[in-house]
Amino acid sequence: YGYSFDRWSGSVSGTSSTATVTMDAQVTVTAHFQVHPDAFEPDDVSSQAGWLPDRQPQTHSILPVGDTDWARFYVDSLSQVVIETSGPEDDNTRLCLFDGKVTRLECDIASGPGQFSRLDRLCGADALLPVPYYVRTNEYVNDKAVHSYYIGLAITACWATEAQSAPAQSSDD
Question: What's the pTM value of the predicted model, to 2 decimals?
Fold first, then answer.
């Protein structure tokens, strides 16, 4: 995953994914692959960030080594927000949250499943105000690729969480 076949070189040439080689002498065949970036590329800087939808995880990759992914989202009322990366491998991501002016608010390494990241901004002092936000994801020390990871966002208005936890009102008849 993360790479696609590009071409053959050496005793065989061409761009077909299959090749026939006649072994009547010593041959050298090299298959060349190219990095296949995720569907949200380019998203390497905040100005290229695509929208991260609420409760619809997206699949991304950190390719090549050193790649950084940016996404953005909007909170329309005082809200609790959970942002989490996860994936099929035990990769180690670093997830950072930024405000609309791209000022870093916080980062997390490995608080999510496996070695993935998770940021929890709960109602109260940590709740997010109704403004745009950015999220940056990279491999923890930028020394390896993450071939596939998911990034998910869950936004819940604080008034909704307060209504769920409020005691039921009884009426005297």
Answer: 0.77
